[in-house]
Amino acid sequence: MAAAWGREAMRVEVVSMELGVQVLPVAEARWWSRPMARLLIVVVLLAGVTAAVDKIAAGMAAGPVGGLVAGGLGAGFAMWAYAMGVRATERRHVMELLPGREEAASLVWRWTLAGLALFTVTIGVIAVVGGYRVTGWGSPGGAVTVFGTMCAVAVVEELLFRGALFRIVEEMAGTWGALLVSGGLFGALHLANPGATGWGALAIAVEAGLMLGAAYAATRSLWVPIGLHLGWNAAEAGLFGVTVSGSGAESHGLLEATMSGPAALTGGAFGPEASVVAILVCSVPTVLFLRLAHRRGHLNPRP
Fold first, then answer.
1. How confident is the model over 59-70, as pLDDT tens digits?
2. Quick check: bond before 262 cis, omega within 30?
3. Model pTM?
4. Which tens digits make up the pLDDT trace of 197-212?
């Protein structure tokens, strides 16, 4: 979606409801309406929300209730900040976070289950070839705490990388450019984790960055990548008790497990996300989402 700039005002933009945009009123062109300024504003808002929620979480007693409350607050504040940023800089309703509350909740749960299934298939393949072994039961309460934490993580990262970065880069470089940029930066973000590796970051970019970007391109709804992201992370740490993206955090999931074998199979210190198995498994929905995006006419060429 390209914007035509004049000295005094922007033109009215009309885009199909299927793509998540509507007729906009004429608004004066201001510096904060430019693509990079809009991206920076959203990044700053979400960074502020993340810092505030971290303080709230640190002040709460450890446990399932604290984890769920902190995660819920983080997700809610992040969506509010994103919506305020979009409305202020783009003068439009946040169509990518529609439909209504009940429909959105149903959508998120369905795709959360899909994300859980994707990781279950991944860890199942690794287990069949001897790379993953369950050693006992972990903590049900810990699994709930992980789920709460991952709610905030999934929402913040998807608002930032698919809601802001992908969408704004797509305006300038088209859908393929947006997929490459958002996927690459999503992988690079994980290089900051303690156990991160270059290969792990590349694997994240391919299996998650491209898949989640393709999910948004196909549906133009942020609830789909949010659900996939949440289900994958919650299954990884909360259910199967393995390392998430080289975070180095001690697992408190439902199961206690060990991983052994070649790093190409298990992902090594980075966790299963750096496994070739994860890349192959996630390539399937990526291709399916891209085919769906093509059929729906959502693969926008470079403006």
1. 554 678 888 888
2. no
3. 0.86
4. 899 999 999 999 999 9
